[in-house]
Amino acid sequence: MINSNAYDYINILDRTADASWTRNEVIGNNIANVNTPGYKRQDIDFETQLRQSLGDSRYISMDTKVRNSLKDDLRPRLYYDHINYSYRLDGNNVDIDTENMELAANQLKYQGIIAGIKSEFNNLQSVMKST
Questions:
Q1: Among 11, 87, 109, 130, which residue's Cβ finds the most Cβ atoms within 10 Å?
Q2: Number of separate domains in the chain
Q3: Gap between the Cα atoms of 26 and 19, Å rounded
Q4: Contacts for 44-50: CB closer than 8 Å, 24+ residues apart
Q5: For residue 1, what pLDDT band results from cuts at 50, 70 and 90?
Q6: Which tens digits make up the pLDDT trace of 95-121?
Q7: Average pLDDT of span 3-28
Q8: Residue 33 has what pLDDT?
């Protein structure tokens, strides 16, 4: 991570991209284990932690919220989805159609995050050219 306030948004987007990449791997693991008896679906939760870290106070600027959230230990949290639920006799709770949909949605999210990072770098580049 770069230690400058100018890169705060990029650093948050970087952490978000890392979490999205990790989620891609977890979903891929679920797909690979679709026929493994007893396997329980896993997922990643990062958005909830980021939302809590950014806080709900409307009296604090977004710059301050982002700066404060960088001090927090924002990491994706792995969890088992519906660990006691299975609609299959073998105890596996992975639905391949749901996993494929989640994978496609996560890939779109990742592409959006990367576009956001690129946009932030373009903004920095514009500022540096104008000074």
A1: 11
A2: 1
A3: 10
A4: 44/19, 44/76, 44/77, 44/78, 44/79, 45/76, 45/77, 45/79, 46/16, 46/19, 46/20, 46/74, 46/75, 46/76, 46/77, 49/74, 49/75, 49/76, 49/77, 50/12, 50/15, 50/16, 50/74
A5: very low
A6: 999 999 999 999 999 999 999 999 989
A7: 87
A8: 96
**Identity (one letter) of the amino acid at 50?**
L
Per DSSP, what are the bridge partners of residue 79?
43
Looking at residues 70-96, what average pLDDT do you find?
82
pTM above 0.85, yes or no: no
What is the model's pLDDT at position 18? 94
Q: What range defines the domain where residue 9 resides? A: 5-130
